[in-house]
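Entry 14. Ran structure prediction on the chain below.
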Amino acid sequence: MISVKISCLRTDLANAVSNVSRAVSAKASIPALEGILIKAYGESINISGYNLEIGITTDIEATIQTEGEIVVSAKLFLDIVRRLPEEIVMIETDERMITYIKSGHVDYQIVGMSSVEYPDLPTFEQTDGITVNAKTLREMIRQTVYAVSENTAKPIYTGSLFEIENGVLKIIAIDGYRMAIRSKNVDSESKTSFVVPGKTQLEVLKLLSDDEDNVKIIIGQRHITFKVKSYRVISRLTEGTFLDYKKTVPEDKKTEIVINTRLIIDSVERMSLLNNDRMQSPVRCAFANDEIKLSCASAVGRASDIISVPIIGEEVEIGFNNRYLLDALKNTDTDEIKLILNGPLSPMIIKPVKGDCFLSIVVPMRLANEG
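Output, structure tokens:
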């Protein structure tokens, strides 16, 4: 074990440890996995967190007097660094792996672990790759990840299908009750598809910003790396056969409505007040006579609302889980949307008035006939 002796900026260290710690196991069979790995070589320190599914790693500038590696408790180390009084932090370890942290008059000694006990992050051969604008990727993930399944009985649907073909990147998520598809033109001649776990996407999402930086996506046979600024998120890909989503999009349309997005969200939210986690009564939507009549009846009461809007086609009455419907509506990001229905038992399509940059499908709930 080589002793480590380094100094760096507290702000840089706190930010890095905070982000990397999200890939650290709270309770792990290998004690080292509850820690972060700090490697000090050259002119920077590399900090990694890894839970055997997702790894997050980054480099920050540092003055290194003695090179080496150490594993420290992620939670304790982050709590300490966040509360240090000065901007310069000095970290030193000895042969017993005691880690000394100094800043101003504050001095900590904490127990470290040997880096030998820390599992290696996956390395893999690149089979393909794509570069995507950070803001674009952030919006695409945000607008689809809500529809990723939480049911581990079918692991393939706990991830989203990323599909690159003809210069278009598509992300598709489906959980059996709803489906979300987001498309964007990208500068790529690749033709490939792979399934990225929902948990990995959520970690990438937290690192993505609204700026014009690019994100490099490095694709392997079984792994993927997202390079976001100085961070690298390394993850297993989800293996299995994803649903042929193109065949699940209803082609017929019996009823069509163009509506202000905020107007329908507000109305569904008003109906949702009568629902809670313990009871889910459907939000009933009756489309007829250039009106949408929304209503909800539960054990705590009843509510109704009317939206005046032109309706093209047949009258239809249909019910939805309020949360599934709101998730789809809130992730449209356009002022107006088109609703397409094909009877009371077929899924409803939500799409832009023009173009096809997104498409959401919500499966209806069966309505009980009220006497």
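The chain has a mean pLDDT of 94. Will compare against last week's run tomorrow.
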